[in-house]
Amino acid sequence: MTAPPAAVPRPAAPRRSPGRVKAAMFAVSVSLPALAALAGPLISPHGIDTPVTAPFGAPGAGVPLGGDQLGRDVLSRVLHGGTALIASALLVAVVTTLTAALIGCVAVLRPRLGRLVERGADVAILLPPLLGIMLVALAWPGGGRRAVIAAAVVLGVPYAIRIVAAAASPLATAGYVEAALSRGESTAYIAWREILPNLRATVLTLFGLRFVEAVYVISMAGFLQIGPRPPASDWSLMIRENAPGALLNPWAVIAPSLAIAGLAIAVNLLTHSLAPDTTAKAVTRS
Amino acid sequence: MSRPADTGARRAAHLALRAAAPAGRRALLLVVLLAAVFTAVELLPGDAAGNSAERGESAADLAARRHLLGLDRPLWERFADWMGGLPTGDLGTSAHGQKVTALLADPLPNTLVLAVTAFLLTVALSLLLGCWAAARPGRPADRVIGHASTAAFALPEFVVSAGLLLVLSLWTGWLPAVTVTGGDGRPATWTMLVLPVLALVIPQTGWNTRVVRGALADQASTPHVQAAHLDGLPPHRVLLRHQLPGAVPAIATGVATSTGLLFGGAVVVETLFNYPGIGTVLASAVAARDTPLIAGVVMCAGAVISLVLLAADLVRHATLGART
Amino acid sequence: MNRRQALWAGGALGVGALLAACSSSGGGTSSASSAGDGAPRKGGTLRVGALGRASAITRDPHGTQANESDYLVIALVFDTLTVPGAKANVAPRLAASWEPSADLKTWRFRIDKGAVFHDGTPVTAEDVAWSLKRLRGTPSGAARLPGVQAGNIRAEGADTVVLVSDYANAEFPMLTRFASFVMKKDTKDAEVAKAPGTGPFKLDWYRGGNARLVRNDRWHGSPVHLDAIEVTMFETPQAMANALLTGQIDLASNAGAVAARTAASRRDVQVLRRPNDMAMPIVMRTARPSPFADERVREAMRLVVDRDVMVRQVLSGYGTVANDILGTGDPDYAKDIPQRGRDLAKARRLLADAGFDLSRTYELVTTEDVPGLADSATLFAHQAADVGVRIKVVKQESGTFWAKTWKTGDLYTSYWGTNDSAVFFAAKTMVGEAGQNEAGWNDPGFDAAYRKVIGTADTGKRAAALKELQRIEHDRSGYLLWGMADGIDLAAAKVRNLPRLAGYGRVQLEGVWLR
After folding, report:
1. Closest CA to C429 of C437, C439, C421
2. CATH of residue C189
3. CATH classification at residue A260
4. Measured between CB atoms, which of A50, A138, A248 is closest to C397?
5. Banded pLDDT at B1 (limits 50, 70, 90)
6. Could you say which residues from 273 to 302 on chain B have a Cβ atom under 8 Å away from some Cβ of chain A?
7. pLDDT tier at C38, thresholds 50, 70, 90
8. What is the C-alpha to C-alpha distance for residues C284 and C300, in angstroms, rounded to an integer?
9. CA 20 to 30 Å from C405, out of A113, A126, A234, B62?
10. In whole numbers, what is the pLDDT of chain C averaged over residues?
11. Would you indicate the residue range of the signal peptide (chain C) (predicted)?
12. Does residue A56 belong to any structural domain of this protein?
């Protein structure tokens, strides 16, 4: 990744290279687990709340991965357990990225807003995300998944704005932006038409990172029993519920663990292959 | 830094002055955070009186308990009281009538031992891996490390913990499955630290390796590094003498930022391994709506995170100052 | 099912018979139990694991002990007046004997002659009266000593304490079993944590929920064999079971069924089952406008549940089928009332007769407070679908549940950990005016039977009234009690003479010895 020395680094634009085709193929191959999770409910052999074997029953005929804590089919529950997780993580990533992109672009044009955002991010950084989720979700007990999604967005936005603002600040003094300012264009116009288009790579990267982060945070919350409720099947909840029987039927824990690991890795590699340079940089900016 | 010794004292004084402003700012931010947490806990349904009550207490009993805990006073008054006690080291009283300082006296050092061990190990590992990868840009080793670190950082701690517990303890019996403390409040043997530390280190190293690798890549394109390469210096020398020092500020900031994640991970890891730290205290305090206890834990965690961020600020100032 | 399980699963044996039969067994393997038993061996340290949370640590014997670990420490350091017993459900502890007045209102407790505090001073009636008044003065005092005003507790002479109840109560001594810990008179609140007790063990140290206790050689009760007990607090049953399986502790108290199954194949671990430990009834609100106000609907629900499947799936088989009567461990439990089974046809008919609305979805509210509770709700919802009743399980966070749903919800799960008295439940949860009337039940016939039970001194007449009380409860109450979970302890093979009693009886570790 030795980038050619550039005297004036241009605002990052997606680069075209032969590697890109490879990356795309790679992307398809790693997104297969995600696809399987989305299509899983269609091919699962049993219902998710029907006991078909003994609690933590060993794998056998008809139950290839054995039973869970109520003797329900582990395979069927794993196949059902990813849909909501993926959908909520996606929602969090989209909302966070969009909000951050818009506010971040405006913030570099309006220094006062910029400073406010900085302070917000400074405070948010002191609050471990997990604790934030616990507080928000508990303050909204009926919220379930919605509470977790809201918390993840609220806690993720300040940090994401900072990344966008950092990438956008060199642009605020660029010639074409100053030209637009002197033309008397509105802040919104400049943010939307002049700055944002030049931040495509950053935003794409940010989206990827937010998605990974969302999967992490939502599954962590699920593990702490915030969000999904029994008898819903959810990978993180399954790990929590079935952990006591890990020695009786290890698959009840291993299968959802592998599913979460697979999803997280797939999403991460996908981001990495879409925007390899900026990913590395985005994590160092804070 | 090879600088003459006589300027050392002046530099230190200069640094201290520079540190004062950010330190004050960080302290202010901590107060804002605590106020936010106090308010948030207030919004939670139910309160500490209800949660520490027994079945069958009447409304009058509950009101008595509420009065005993001071919950019938306005929020701002309780917050002011709590803040007022801070300078004297008084963090208030938990819903079950225990001093918060007493409840945190043993767990806080335990968590610090766990977190600092994990943190140092993480920094060492990620520097090693990051440098190793950066020395071989684009080659298989770089790609493998890149993908592996990506994969590791995406893994939630509880997944890592479940795997480690099964393999290294329950199946093989190599390591103790949980932490048991002795009369001094510390883990009885050091082997009990291995699994919790590993569970924290693996995801953290993933993240920080990427930070290091990214910062080094940034430096690779700077003119003085390019010039060093053109001068024909051996690559590892360029990496250690030119690339790495320039990357230190970015690395310090990135690593410091991850301490919040480390603490979040500790909540889960401590619970899973029965490690007696403030993570377990926090998890149960949130469930019990124990405001003073939650605030006490947030205070401690926030203070530690603030200190780490402050240290990163200083490192950044020091290195940037040295270069200008 | 191995030999040990077969032995313990014998619900047909009386508790007393069980105790006698097992006092010399409980070994992990047949060789272990035959070779190593005999006379108790003195010495050794027992490492006990018990559940607890760091935030809920309570050192005050009269505080709210949310942690089993804290209760265990307190119960070994301090003595209550009485404790749960095997033959009768009240056994002497600090009180050597007790007797009521003729009207069953005034009760006299005589303190054990040899009782001394850990610092050597004898226990006086003043100490006991002061402690009971202190207990009565806490916010939960009225719930713990119901019907006793603080002014009606007094010392009489050196060794007798007199309590006067507001109403006749033949079961009064039961109130003194769990919380009546005795401290020295005028112990200050700040000194409670280090206050000397009178119990079988003295506190060596206590830190962050963990503690070490050493033998009290001057204990007034039977000889204590162990040198010391080390208590380790565990946040989760799973961590506790793992600690036992990897040999880090010798006894995992209340470890649960899954841990028992995991350990079943281990020859170095004994699994102890204490029957009738935990009740997890489904509560149906009996007052209008609840959809379960109609007696026939409640009867139908009780006929819908498949009790055997519930016990098998929810409790992993570590439990017994119940008959909708709470207090299954009572020596006077009505075993002759026929067991209710699954009868879908009759249930459908009853629902149709009552005009039950099958087009609606009913919410069954549950919590994760105890293992298996949410699972029982899930499985019951599944079974109810067989007669067309649609039930949606709603899991509430514990605090919300107790504040919002408990005692007011139409359909929810509850749980009770003390099950050795049918009268206890009648008084606490089923009499019309009961403070914790979970189902809002108000049945004149039942109330009359209850008053007869607690107001009758003659044991024969009382037994008859108690049977009548249980029959009404079986027929008409708001409870669906499908089964009883066993209390399950895991212990290393060397541990002998562990407590057999359900519920809080499990803390009676003073008789334990190590082989």
Report:
1. C437
2. 3.90.76.10
3. 1.10.3720.10
4. A138
5. very low
6. 282-283, 286, 298, 301-302
7. confident
8. 12
9. A234
10. 87
11. 1-20
12. no
Q: Is the pLDDT of residue B148 over 50?
A: yes
**Quick check: helix, strand or coil at residue B309?**
helix
pLDDT at residue B271, rounded to an integer: 86
> C469 and C422 in contact (C-beta within 8 Å)?
yes
CB contact under 8 A, C235 and B98: no
Q: Does B289 touch chain C (CB under 8 A)?
A: yes
Task: Work out how many domains chain A is built from and give that number.
Answer: 1
Number of domains present in the structure of chain C: 2
Nearest CA among B234, B246, B230, B268 for reference residue B316: B246
Q: With CB atoms and an 8 Å threshold, state whether C397 touches A141.
A: yes
Q: State whether A257 and B298 contact (CB < 8 Å).
A: no
Q: Minimal Cα distance from B102: which residue of C? A: C208
Restricting to B residues 147-166, those with a Cβ less than 8 Å away from any Cβ of A are 147, 150-151, 153-159, 162-163, 165-166
C127 lies in which domain range? 15-198+487-514
Domain around A75: 65-274
User: Which residues, at least 6 apart from C38, have a Cβ–Cβ distance to it below 8 Å?
Assistant: none
A contacts of C266 (beta carbons < 8 Å): none
Q: How many residues appear in chain C?
A: 515
The CA radius of gyration of chain C, in Å to the nearest whole number, is: 23
The span from the CA of B83 to the CA of A179, in Å, is: 51
Domain shared by C131 and C168, yes or no: yes
Residue A221 lies in a domain: yes
Q: What CA–CA distance (Å, rounded) separates B13 from C15?
A: 77
Task: Please check whether residue A184 lies inside any domain of the structure.
Answer: yes
Residue A54 lies in a domain: no
Domain identity same for C194 and C297: no
On the question of pLDDT at C13 being above 80, the answer is no
Q: List subunits contacting chain A, requiring 3 or more Cβ pairs under 8 Å.
A: B, C
User: Across-strand partners of C213?
Assistant: C203, C229
How many beta carbons lie within 10 A of that of residue C215, not counting itself?
Answer: 19
B43 in contact with C, Cβ within 8 Å: no
User: Which amino acid, one-letter code, is at C103?
Assistant: D
The interface pTM score, or ipTM, of the predicted complex is 0.74
The CATH number of residue C352's host domain is 3.10.105.10
What's the DSSP call for residue B181? B
Query: Contacts by C25-32 with C-beta closer than 8 Å and gap 24+?
Result: C26/C270, C26/C272, C26/C496, C26/C497, C26/C498, C27/C270, C27/C493, C28/C4, C28/C266, C28/C267, C28/C268, C28/C269, C28/C270, C28/C492, C28/C493, C29/C267, C29/C493, C30/C3, C32/C493, C32/C515
Task: Name the CATH superfamily, with its identifier, for domain B106-287.
Answer: MetI-like (1.10.3720.10)
Whether C22 and C118 share a structural domain: yes
Instruction: Summarize pLDDT for C303-359 with one digit per residue, the tens.
Output: 999 999 999 989 989 999 999 999 999 888 999 999 999 999 999 999 999 999 999
Q: How far apart are CA C278 and CA C276, in angstroms?
A: 6
Q: Which SS3 state, helix, strand or coil, does residue A231 take?
A: coil
Asked if B168 has any chain C CB less than 8 Å from its own CB, the reply is no
Nearest CA in chain A to C261: A248
Q: How far is A53 from chain B (nearest CA, A)?
A: 23
Give the closest residue to C175 by CA, choosing from C117, C109, C101, C115.
C109
Dihedral of alpha carbons C256, C258, C263, C264, sign: positive
Amino acid present at A235: W
What single-letter amino acid sits at C305?
Answer: V
| Cβ contact B80:B31 at 8 Å | no
Determine, yes or no, domain membership for C453: yes
Torsion of Cα atoms, C246 then C251 then C255 then C257, to 10°: 80
Residues C166 and C42 in one domain: yes
Kindly determine whether residue B45 and residue C404, on different chains, have CB atoms separated by under 8 Å. Answer: yes
